[in-house]
């Protein structure tokens, strides 16, 4: 991909059905789906990311329900009729505080999700089946292996399937190979929550995110300590998504590797309902100033119906639209940003100042907490931004690699301790 022309960023939403949330697969109503997708398309968005619940689609290791796959295909077709491309998550694992794992991996059948040969064979067959069913549809973007499934691999999950970084690497490559076998040449990737970037010794690493798959996915949630530590109106909170996009580039082998902001939202009470539109505008403006951005996919399309119980409070109001499909202030502001970007988008200039990222080892990154909120790299990036710079990041192992720096347009390298002394 090196040397390819910059592409205009994509704008989309993670599709949360208004009727039954992701449980809608149990009572699939294509007319309701069509109405939801009409309201998404009306915002000017160009894609959705959808979530077939793994236990419902593959309730037994050797049973992938044909009717469920047909319903997924019908959803993809309905989206295409409305000008929307579709990215499909396979092994969600975790959504909005709930775990979704099939019974053949739990309790009496407890087996490691990442290393048990039978489980891995079943997962690969499932991903390959979904991809193959959609391969002929022009609006099918590709598969994401799963939604933040890295959270099952270690703390703070209450019942983790512990693995090593090497085992995580092998599992990811096996899963993505299955996606590629099912639908060659599509945008197949994997997605981790920010423990991969910020949590020391987490088995899914920045290296995995930036080196495996067709693009790097980042999920930006300011309830991770950013908004609490720095404040809702702070530079750090407004720039958190852009920071993750630029942090991802430190580990990429290809300077032109695309980065997909695959999840970002305005969580209450950290971002109040009255402040959501401002936060949306600030976040989008910041990430659009990042070279190599594949796109922005907002979490989420529609609110969660309050008749559904036991969600954390913040999950109910994250939608761009209400459960009645009315546009909320954040949705209106995102629609404005989309229109503005399409009418006047210009490729961002290279970010010429790079903060050095030293995590002890570029592959395992045992000291990656320096990158998280309160860490030296994080704070140096934000201080430079407040001073008017447009920083990026570079690994300590590459900080003197002139060819690498030149390929990324970096002309100045700064260490975090030097920024603190400014």
UniProtKB/TrEMBL annotation:
Keywords: Hydrolase. InterPro entries: GH. GO terms for molecular function: hydrolase activity. This is Glycosyl hydrolase.
């Amino acid at each position: 991909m090196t040397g390819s022309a910059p592409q205009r960023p994509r704008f989309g939403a993670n599709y949360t059905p208004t009727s039954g949330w992701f449980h809608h697969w149990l009572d699939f109503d294509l007319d309701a789906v069509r109405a939801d997708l009409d309201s998404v398309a009306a915002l000017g968005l160009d894609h959705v990311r959808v979530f077939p619940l793994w236990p419902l689609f593959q309730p037994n290791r050797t049973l992938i329900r044909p009717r469920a796959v047909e319903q997924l295909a019908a959803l993809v077709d309905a989206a295409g009729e409305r000008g929307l491309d579709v990215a499909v998550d396979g092994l969600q694992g975790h959504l909005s505080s709930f775990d979704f794992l099939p019974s053949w991996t739990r309790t009496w059948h407890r087996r490691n999700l990442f290393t048990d040969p039978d489980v891995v064979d079943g997962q690969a067959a499932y991903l390959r089946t979904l991809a193959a069913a959609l391969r002929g549809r022009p609006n099918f973007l590709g598969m994401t292996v799963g939604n933040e499934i890295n959270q099952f691999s270690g703390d703070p999950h209450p019942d983790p399937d512990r693995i090593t970084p090497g085992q995580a690497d092998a599992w990811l490559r096996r899963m993505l190979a299955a996606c590629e076998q099912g639908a060659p040449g599509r945008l197949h990737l994997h997605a981790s929550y920010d423990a991969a970037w910020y949590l020391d010794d987490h088995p899914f690493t920045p290296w995995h995110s930036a080196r495996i798959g067709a693009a790097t996915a980042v999920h930006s949630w300011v309830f991770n300590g950013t908004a609490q530590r720095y404040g809702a109106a702070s530079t750090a909170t407004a720039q958190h998504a852009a920071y993750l996009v630029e942090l991802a580039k430190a580990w990429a082998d290809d300077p032109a590797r695309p980065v997909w902001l695959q999840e970002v939202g305005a969580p209450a009470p950290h971002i109040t309902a009255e402040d959501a539109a401002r936060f949306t505008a600030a976040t989008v403006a910041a990430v659009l100033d990042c070279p190599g951005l594949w796109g922005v996919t907002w979490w989420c399309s529609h609110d969660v119906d309050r008749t559904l119980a036991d969600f954390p409070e913040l999950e109910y109001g994250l939608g761009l639209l209400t459960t009645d499909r009315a546009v909320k202030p954040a949705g209106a502001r995102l629609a404005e940003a989309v229109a503005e970007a399409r009418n006047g988008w210009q490729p961002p200039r290279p970010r010429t100042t790079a903060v050095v990222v030293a995590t002890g080892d570029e592959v395992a990154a045992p000291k990656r907490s320096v990158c998280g909120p309160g860490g030296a790299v994080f704070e140096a990036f934000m201080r430079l931004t407040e001073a008017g710079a447009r920083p990026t990041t570079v690994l300590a192992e590459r900080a003197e690699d002139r060819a690498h720096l030149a390929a990324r347009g970096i002309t100045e390298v700064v260490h975090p301790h030097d920024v603190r002394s400014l």
